[in-house]
Amino acid sequence: MGRARRRRDRVLEHLTELRSLPIGGAPEPAFRARLRAELISRHRAEQSPYPFPSVSAADLPSLSSGTPVPSSPGRHARPRASRRPARRRPMLSHLASFGLAAGMMVSAFATYQSVPGDSLYPLKRAAESTLVRLSADDAQRGERELDSAKTRAKEVASLLGSAGDGPLVGETLKDMEDSTRSGISRLERAEPRSPKIKKFARDQKEMVSPMLPQLNGDQQAQAEGYLHYIEGLVAPQ
Q1: Domain coordinates of the chain in residue numbers?
Q2: pLDDT tens digits for range 106-148
């Protein structure tokens, strides 16, 4: 009943518009186009099980023009949803990679510059130990242990004068001597009378000797015993 009533009201509306036209005149093109659009839209809606969008007068040619009306799509045709390509963000990816690499470089530099007592110092020592264990042979392992001994000497120089440096200086001096003795022993087995040993001894003497006036009694005894040991490496045999 509701649909029939709406149709009747629409017909009455069109008749009212026709009544307002002058006698002998024809309907205006806009009226004809609108009426034609409504009739076509209702015809499609009744024949197709899928709803069609309403057609406006601007979308259809007028009755007076000879433009053909486009054919309607198939009865069971459904619009295909277009897939949007995934958005790629190469710039953000590059920036994230660069930031990660920069962070790793800063962290590695801070670890390398750390001294006993710093939070990153255990990581530094662990990296040194791993590098020594991964050595190809005794000669390379001995050289890396001597490099660690040089690093301990530099750390002692950095610790001198800092607050609470007493136990840290003593521990670092002991680690320096342990690395030196282990490295010399390995290098002598792999390369007897190697010139690398004498060069190391001279460099260490130049590094440790200036520290003696800044060390306390126990620390001086440790350093003097170490210097006596490496001086024997330089003496002619």
Answers
A1: 28-61, 116-234
A2: 556 557 678 898 999 999 999 999 999 999 999 999 999 999 9
